[in-house]
Design goal:
Elements (H helix, E strand, L loop, with lengths): L4 E6 L3 H12 L4 E5 L5 H5 L2 H20 L12 H20 L1 H7 L1 E5 L1 E4 L4 E5 L4 E11 L3 E3 L27 E5 L3 H13 L2 E5 L11 H13 L3 E3 L2 E8 L5 E7 L2 E7 L1 E4 L3 E3 L13 E2 L2 E2 L12 E3 L10 H17 L12 E3 L4 E6 L2 H6 L5 E6 L4 H5 L6 E6 L6 E8 L2 H13 L4 H5 L9 H15 L2 H11 L16
Parallel strand pairs: 1-2, 1-6, 2-3, 6-18, 8-9, 8-14, 9-10
Antiparallel strand pairs: 4-5, 5-6, 7-15, 11-12, 12-13, 16-17, 19-20, 20-23, 21-22, 22-23
Helix pairs in contact: 1-8, 3-4, 3-6
Length: 491
């Protein structure tokens, strides 16, 4: 009873909101401290505005495509209206899910200000109006991350954007350079290109989305290049500067050859860095590394009553993993039920159009670990719903054990890939095999049917000539034996 609270949550983003809500639901006296606004990066600078922008850019493209079918546009794009709509969606999500009063009604005390550790049990909350201390039996750190700005020569002398400022634009850039070809960079590249900005994407690696399947990421890269995005890969950015006319100048070396780009705006999308500097972790003796606070698989720090979840740990930079880690931390802290992070079934998706999603082991990891597997493929141009929607550019790849169909990993390039990958995540976590999926009725016509038909290929490839001959002999059938030599056949 010596503590002010049972649970203190530092950070009001996805992880913090989940942890605080769970704490109150379990009857713990809970406080949540947020330095800015509840909702965190996802609501204000990440998932919500970026996906809204992607949606609007898709609408703009659909309008252009509709001209093929006789639709006539009356006027061009109002960029300021686009950005205002994005900002209105942020507020809508905030009011529906993140408003402090929602959590106060749950029983959570809300404090706004910078949290600073005084010791292992006590945190000082500092804002313009007050400076107070609170103590807690358990503490969960969920302070997220911020855009990583690399130390490029000249970057401090120019104006540039990160995900925290790009959605505040009022005028559409004529041209936009994006430094970084990861998920954030690629999503923004397609969105701005479709809205009419000329986009050039730079990355030091020879391909985009380096954590994704090389074949499928290559298909997406080709698709985006056909839409007009100019990719400058294997590019080392040497210097940034402004021209006398006010343009941004980027000096690079591409495959060892010097190259110069000039244009309107620059977006830095070179990764994320954990937010922990202001916490003064040393006062509590909490261990951390450059990439984030060190936690074990139960989200526990080196202090047994202090946990950290989400981006601040440097382990996973996905909103859904922040929520998952929060559930793990609260379950361990308050309920004393041993629960670990589900590291084997972490899905992710890049929400371009088409999307690119993955769960489980990648093909590269399977090869490097000498794990036997077989690849089962199913193209989108054999999914009837994709044909009706004119969205046949896509491919499902599943890596599974040949003898029993146990799924080891899956990757999907195509429309609604981010939704479809959830079926594989559910299957893998619960031991559902390709055979089980193939035997499950899926509605027609849907994209989900592609998941079942990809599983059907396990049956197809499990056939053998001798088996067919045996069936013919046993039952006296008179048909021909099919040619089963082509392992890439699709049925």
């Amino acid at each position: 009873m010596k503590y002010d609270y049972d649970l203190l949550v530092i950070g009001g983003g996805a992880g913090g909101l989940t942890a605080a809500g769970m704490g109150a639901n379990f009857g713990a006296k809970t406080m949540m401290v947020e330095a800015d606004k509840l909702g965190g990066d996802c609501t204000w600078h990440g998932c919500i505005p970026s996906k809204t922008l992607l949606h609007l850019s898709k609408v703009a493209r659909n309008v252009n495509e509709a001209e093929k079918f006789g639709y006539q546009k009356s006027q061009g794009l109002d960029f300021s209206a686009v950005m205002e709509h994005i900002r209105s969606k942020r507020v809508e999500v905030y009011e529906e899910a993140d408003d402090p009063d929602i959590f106060r009604q749950m029983g959570v005390d809300i404090a706004f200000g910078q949290a600073i550790f005084v010791d292992g049990d006590t945190v000082r909350i500092v804002n313009e109006e007050e400076n107070r201390k609170v103590s807690s039996r358990y503490i969960i750190i969920a302070t997220g991350s911020k855009a990583l700005v690399p130390p490029i020569k000249g970057i401090k002398e120019i104006s540039y954007h990160t995900n925290e400022t790009i959605f505040e634009l009022e005028e559409q850039p004529e041209s936009l350079a994006i430094i970084g070809a990861g998920p954030i960079g690629i999503e923004m590249a397609q969105a701005f290109q479709r809205l009419g900005t000329k986009v050039t994407a730079f990355d030091m690696l020879p391909r985009i989305l380096s954590n994704d399947d090389e074949e499928l990421a290559g298909m997406l890269q080709d698709y985006l290049a056909n839409e007009g995005i100019d990719f400058k890969l294997s590019a080392s950015v040497k210097k940034l500067s402004e021209t006398p006319e006010g343009a941004v100048k980027i000096e690079t070396q591409i495959n060892g050859e010097p190259s110069v780009w000039e244009g309107s705006e620059v977006l830095i999308a070179a990764g994320r860095s954990a937010n922990y500097e202001e916490l003064q972790l040393e006062n509590a003796g909490i261990h951390h590394q450059e990439n984030g606070i060190t936690v074990d698989d139960r989200c526990k720090t080196n202090k047994k009553h202090i946990y950290a979840v989400g981006d601040v740990t440097g382990r996973y930079q996905f909103t859904h993993m922040s929520e998952h880690m929060a559930k793990v931390a609260v379950t361990n802290a308050l309920l004393k039920i041993p629960k670990k992070i589900d590291q084997k079934h972490v899905p992710w998706s890049t929400y371009t159009d088409p999307e690119l999603a993955h769960v489980g082991a990648t093909e590269k990891e399977l090869r490097e670990n000498n794990i036997s597997y077989k690849t089962y493929r199913f193209p989108y141009d054999k999914i009837d719903r994709a044909i009706t929607d004119e969205s046949t550019d896509g491919l499902i790849k599943v890596f599974a054990k040949e003898w029993n169909g146990k799924i080891l990993g899956a990757t999907i390039y195509g429309k609604q890939a981010g939704d479809l990958i959830g079926e594989y995540a559910l299957a893998m976590r619960n031991g559902v095999t390709l055979r089980n999926i193939a035997d499950t009725i899926h509605p027609y016509p849907t994209y989900g049917l592609g998941v079942r038909r990809a599983a059907d290929q396990w049956y197809v490839q499990s056939q053998s000539t001798w088996m067919v001959k045996l069936i013919k002999w046993v039952f006296g059938y008179r048909g021909t034996v099919p040619d089963l030599s082509d392992e890439d056949r699709i049925i």
